[in-house]
Q: What sequence folds into this?
């Protein structure tokens, strides 16, 4: 195990003091330490991992220093384009240190959405010509090596982080004054749906909670598409479904996911049919992976959606608000509901026990009969 604070201090001693990235559960202690000790314009929680690569590139161009980008290996997909067409040695040749959480490491047990990504993580970097180092207790010499490598080669280099590598660091979950928890909001939303309504729910604890609510209530899972991976794409999956059938499709999104691929909301109003219903659970944080803040409380989500072409956007703070506005969402218009919730989830929250393929099959059977 590595002492998280000592590791952070070592990075700073090497002038590796500009951070950008998307939080990850394996990096939650490191992310908490970076956040607690770094000024805000030197730790940018990015919309997505590709943006973080681009910020580190810009920072290097302007300062000559090397940026540090942290991400879960799921984020490699978002990062590939700027890694290959911006920072690659055959393009602008820009060095940066990548810190990558290794979910789905072969030989360990992990969730289905991490298994393939975990298997190909090292190979993906190899294919991109990016050297990888699996970080361990000898981190000082490994970071020295990375530093010299960046200096000599003007290329990115990645350190890969195994589960449990970083010691605990106090995680300060941001507080807010909202009244209900995400799980209570989800229970209320699900109760308001008809048997014929379908749900596409976002990555992280939202889908886990929906799964458990259905289990507890002895309900089937075939109406819920639990988007276990592919963070940020829930709204586009729901859009495709709403075009592919005439059922009401309720997208239940999180603010981190909404922001990750916000561009999709420029497209949705231009094509969405009236059966596309959007619900955003806004807790202002990446709660599922350690509560790192998002910028969702700084932006006016309602006005943003209205300006993009949504006809009505309702704002809910209580169960009663949700019940009231869920009735309105049934009308044939492009509408959205933004539910403001506090942070926190059950300690004993489980994970879906049906496989993603079985989840999809049962939904397709129901939709196509
Ligand atoms: C591309 C990608 N980057 C990062 C992650 C790790 N991750 C899983 S859930 C999550 C947070 C989602 O935040 P939000 O949508 O606000 O939902 P909340 O957890 O607050 O309910 C993150 C960052 C991921 N799964 N995929």
A:
């Amino acid at each position: 195990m590595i002492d998280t604070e000592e590791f952070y201090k070592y990075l700073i001693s090497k002038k590796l003091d500009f951070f950008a990235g998307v939080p990850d559960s394996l990096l939650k202690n490191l992310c908490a330490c970076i956040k607690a000790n770094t000024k805000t314009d030197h730790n940018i929680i990015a919309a997505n991992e590709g943006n973080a690569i681009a910020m580190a590139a810009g920072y290097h161009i302007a300062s000559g220093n090397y940026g540090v980008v942290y991400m879960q290996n799921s984020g490699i997909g978002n990062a590939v384009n700027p890694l290959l067409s911006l920072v690659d040695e055959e393009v602008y040749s820009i060095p940066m240190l990548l810190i990558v959480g290794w979910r789905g490491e072969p030989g360990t047990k992990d969730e289905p959405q991490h298994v393939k990504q975990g298997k190909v993580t090292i190979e993906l970097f190899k294919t991109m010509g990016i050297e990888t180092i699996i970080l361990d207790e000898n981190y000082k010499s490994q970071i020295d090596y990375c530093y010299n490598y960046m200096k000599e080669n003007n290329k990115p280099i990645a350190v890969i982080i195994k589960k449990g590598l970083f010691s605990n660091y106090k995680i300060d979950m941001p507080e807010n004054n909202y009244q209900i928890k995400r799980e209570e909001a989800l229970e209320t939303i699900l109760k308001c749906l008809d048997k014929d309504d379908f749900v596409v729910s976002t990555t992280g604890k939202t889908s886990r909670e929906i799964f458990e609510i259905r289990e507890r209530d002895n309900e089937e899972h075939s109406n819920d598409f639990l988007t276990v991976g592919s963070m940020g794409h829930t709204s586009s999956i729901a859009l495709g479904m709403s075009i592919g059938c005439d059922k009401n499709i309720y997208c239940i999104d999180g603010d981190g996911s909404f922001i990750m691929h916000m561009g999709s909301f420029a497209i949705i109003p231009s094509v969405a049919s009236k059966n596309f219903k959007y619900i955003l659970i806004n807790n202002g944080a990446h709660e599922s992976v350690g509560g790192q803040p998002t910028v969702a409380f700084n932006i006016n989500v309602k006005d943003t959606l209205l300006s993009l072409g949504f006809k009505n956007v309702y704002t809910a703070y209580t169960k009663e608000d949700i019940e009231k506005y869920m009735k309105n969402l049934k009308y044939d218009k492009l509408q959205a509901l933004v539910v403001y919730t506090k942070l926190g989830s059950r300690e004993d929250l489980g994970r879906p026990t049906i496989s993603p393929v079985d989840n999809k099959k049962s939904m397709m059977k129901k939709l196509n009969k």
